[in-house]
Amino acid sequence: MGIISFIGFTLLVAGFAWWKTRGTDEKSADGYYLGGRSLGAITIAGSLLLTNLSAEQIVGLNGQAFSEGILVMAWETLAAIAMVITAVWFLPKYMKGGITTIPEFIEKRFDENTKAILSVLFLIAFAIVLLPTILYSGSLAFSTMFDLPGMLGWEESSVITLCVWSIGLIGIIYAIFGGLKAVAVSDLINAIGLLIGGLLIPYFGLKLIGDGDMFAGLNTLWTENQDKFDVTGDVTSSIPVGTIFTGMMIAQMYYWGTNQSILQRVFGAKSLKEGQKGMMLAAFVKFLIPIIVVLPGIIAWNVFNGELSSADQAYPQLVKEVLPPALLGFFAAVLFGAVLSSFNSLLNSSATLFGFDLYKKFFKKDASEHQTVKAGKLFGLLVAVISMTIAPLIAKAPDGLFDYIQQALGSLSVPILAVVIIGILTKKVPAIGAKTVLIVGVLMYLVSLLILGPNFIGEAMAEAASNGITDPEKLALIKAEAYPHFLHVMGILFVVNIIIMLVIGMIKPKTDIYVPETTEVIDTTPWKYAYIVGGLITLLVLSTYLIF
């Protein structure tokens, strides 16, 4: 029954997406990359949420909540504030220039070579970090929910590989041949399904804990797991409370304010007003998302008594435990859609970045729009194959899935955000300043993450061992205090990158002063309620922190 409902809902979404996009010209750049700049607020909001809320988010964050509790909701609730800032500050500046990609903005502000470096960094992040984690987490979820190793009689690693390649091949068909509009329309349906299905998990989970009474289950969960409902993490947690004011907001602003795969949804808006409304609506829903991506992890802790072989199995095991077979198939189909959404979004963005920012510069300067789109599709296919090859190897990552993603992305988010913000706020910082930060900034973070951090921690743990310290809590504290948390490192390096660019700007200022261009491809009149609505969303987020 579960398999039948899974196949049925998946085919329904695919058929509807095809029907809704059959009139879009996918051979033009605007048609393929930006859905013909015809997306409305609700479609944008649904697509933003599904691009972000995929299996790596649901599985990874619930896994962290299983281990640490509600403090990990910072990744979701603080994202709402970053989305508000993007809607009221970044979007008007981007959309008045009529840009298609973030590197295109960087080219206008600095030069072509800076744009090329930025595009390459985005593509590396997509191919090596984001796409593989999306495929792996989705495969882990399906393997666990349907007990595929037992059903097929295979080892889990082989099942994960099979799922990775199956999801990847279907995603290629969607993204490479369907364009942005097909992705965005299917996103909207899956967003609704994911919200409904996602709410069913804590509902049935609480009923299980409360012997059929959801409110009794909530009361039991609250009284028996008080330590899980504290948002102020100590230095040994994945989110020490101080990091909220350093690297956390930098990671959020990079993701929502400069990330091509996210902003491409908004660049496809029919007007700035629709883009702002879509992002605000998504921000409000994002504020509520911890019910789906954090609470189930705490429920799983209670249901399984904290005893699972891996924290990342908490969510799929809970889904398997509490959902009836028919609903299990429906939810698996929705989760499948979410995985495809994130996978498709990144493939579409990869094709856009390569076609617009690299192909026409380095391969064929006089390429037509049709040739550019075709080259982008072929490159997207190559990126997909690379990511499908890497994905099964993530099972060997030492830390939790979500922590792995954030640490890996830190190398790119810090310098990219610094370059975009300096590009917007200053007029005299030259291209050499941006290029220096895009290269040196990445190297500084990698040295910190791969060399300095492990060395300092290794020395501290060796000294602890020589002093006969064996208590796990003391060892965890020594490890945490040996070197700054990676989010603190991001905050420090962000300031360093900004200073580097400003100093270069003082020593060798740009001779031709940058003047922002206005290319109104769409109506760029701002939404008059943007600041009011954004302020209310921000107050909601802050009030949540005061409550917990």
Write the layout of secondary structure elements.
Blueprint: H1 2-21, H2 29-34, H3 41-52, H4 55-68, H5 74-95, H6 102-109, H7 112-145, H8 148-152, H9 156-209, H10 214-224, H11 247-257, H12 260-267, H13 272-288, H14 290-293, H15 295-303, H16 314-322, H17 325-363, H18 369-390, H19 401-425, H20 431-466, H21 472-482, H22 486-507, H23 530-547
Helix pairs in contact: 1-9, 1-17, 3-9, 3-12, 3-13, 3-17, 4-7, 4-15, 5-11, 5-13, 5-23, 6-7, 7-9, 7-16, 7-17, 7-18, 7-19, 7-20, 9-10, 9-15, 9-16, 9-17, 9-18, 11-19, 11-22, 12-17, 13-23, 15-16, 17-18, 19-20, 19-22, 20-21, 20-22
Which fold name fills CATH's third level, the topology of the domain at 32-409?
Sodium/glucose cotransporter
Q: What percent of residues are in strands?
A: under 5%
CATH superfamily of the domain at 32-409: Sodium/glucose cotransporter
Helix content: over 70%
Number of strands: 0
Helix-strand makeup class: mainly alpha
Mean pLDDT: 85
Q: Categorize the overall geometry.
A: globular
- Biggest β-sheet strands, sense, barrel: none
Low-confidence stretches: 24-35
Please state the second-level CATH architecture of the domain at 32-409: Up-down Bundle
Total number of helices? 23
Q: Tell me the radius of gyration.
A: 23 Å
Explain the overall architecture.
- The protein has helices spanning 2-21, 29-34, 41-52, 55-68, 74-95, 102-109, 112-145, 148-152, 156-209, 214-224, 247-257, 260-267, 272-288, 290-293, 295-303, 314-322, 325-363, 369-390, 401-425, 431-466, 472-482, 486-507, 530-547.
- With 548 residues, the chain is mainly α.
- The protein is globular.
- The two termini are 41 Å apart.
